[in-house]
Amino acid sequence: MVDVSVIFFLTGLAIAVTILHSFLKQAGRDEYAYLTLVVGLAIGLLKIIPVIHTLFTQVKAVFNLY
Amino acid sequence: MEGLFVILGLALVATVMIVFIQESRIPGVGIMVSVFAGAIIFLYILPKITQVITVFDELASRASLNKFYLATIFKIIGIAYIAEFGAQICRDAGQSAIATKVEFAAKVLVMVLAVPIIAAILESVVRLLP
Questions:
Q1: What is the mean pLDDT of residues A12-19?
Q2: pLDDT digits (tens, 9 = 90+) for B89-114
Q3: Reported pTM
Q4: Closest among B42, B104, B31 to A53, alpha carbons compared
Q5: Which among B9, B17, B25, B113 has the fewest CB atoms less than 10 Å away?
Q6: Cα–Cα dist B53/B36, whole Å
Q7: End-to-end CA distance of chain B
């Protein structure tokens, strides 16, 4: 059973990215504001890719897909 | 039975979180949460599928059926489940074109797996004919 708290982590990530984005945009740093979006997406992908890998390996093992 | 409540709670929490995330500046994370929840539910339900498959395997070996045919059927079921999972996520994200291609690829793979069985059927039919 994989940890379910990743859902809450991703929600918190979205909140933090949104706050940082509006903050940097207000400060006139549009390029850094865009960078926060990219970094947020990268962190989210790093969190879920292992889960997808686990899912694929298990399905392969159960249905003998080789 | 208690497994259903676990899945239902996870699904409700994930849905609320996704609706919340899609209002934020980074809606792509909502799709990630959707993928994650789908993967967790699938992983939770896989051991039960394993039990069913074990029973089917035992029945087939008792009926002295060819193992190859049953393995092919299970492979086809696995391909269908995984392709459906991927295609639904693509469609949820608004990319119906990619979802259709994923389904198309799964259909082709299933056809490739089914070709030996069709050939075997045709061979037996030819043998029956005078």
A1: 93
A2: 999 999 999 999 999 999 999 999 99
A3: 0.86
A4: B42
A5: B9
A6: 25
A7: 55
Compute the residue count for chain A.
66
Tell me the C-alpha distance between B97 and B90, whole Å: 8
* CA gap A55, A46 in Å, rounded: 15
Interface test with B, best of A9, A63, A65, A66 (most B CBs within 10 A): A63
The residue whose two tokens read 């994930």 is B14
B56 near A CB under 8 A:
no
Residue A34 contacts by C-beta under 8 Å, 6 or more apart in sequence? none
- Calculate the alpha carbon distances from B113 to A14, A65, B76, B77, B109 in Å: 43, 11, 7, 11, 6
Which chain B positions have a beta carbon within 8 Å of A47's beta carbon? Answer: 32, 36
- Give the pLDDT confidence of A44-64 residue by residue, as tens digits: 999 999 999 999 999 888 887
For chain B positions 25-44, those within 8 Å of chain A (CB to CB) are 25-26, 28-30, 32-33, 35-37, 39-40, 42-44
